[in-house]
């Protein structure tokens, strides 16, 4: 799953086929198809969540105590499936 973090307003949002943007409007992006996405903004930081680890965490959510961890990561600046528009 691809997400964007706006380093200006701290919004984090998922992408869809429709263009989405953060609260301050300085970060925006969208999926071009099921895999490829574009984003723009000087404050934009691309993030990813491992779909399989998120699904496992959801299925194994505890009733109390610490929640189930899942894998999240920063996406490299040079990523062929998540392109920054200049």
Give the helix/strand layout.
Layout: E1 2-6, E2 12-14, E3 20-21, E4 28-31, E5 37-40, E6 44-49, H1 51-59, E7 72-74, E8 82-84
Parallel strand pairs: 5-8
Antiparallel strand pairs: 1-2, 1-6, 3-4, 4-5, 6-7
Describe it:
The protein is mainly beta and 86 residues long. It has one domain. 10% of the residues lie in helices and 35% in strands. Strands 2-1-6-7 form a four-stranded antiparallel sheet. The protein has a four-stranded mixed sheet with strand order 3-4-5-8, with no helix packed on it. The longest helix has 9 residues, at 51-59. The chain is globular and about 45 Å long. The model has no long low-confidence stretch (mean pLDDT 97).
List keywords for this structure.
about 90 residues; four-stranded antiparallel sheet; about 10% helix
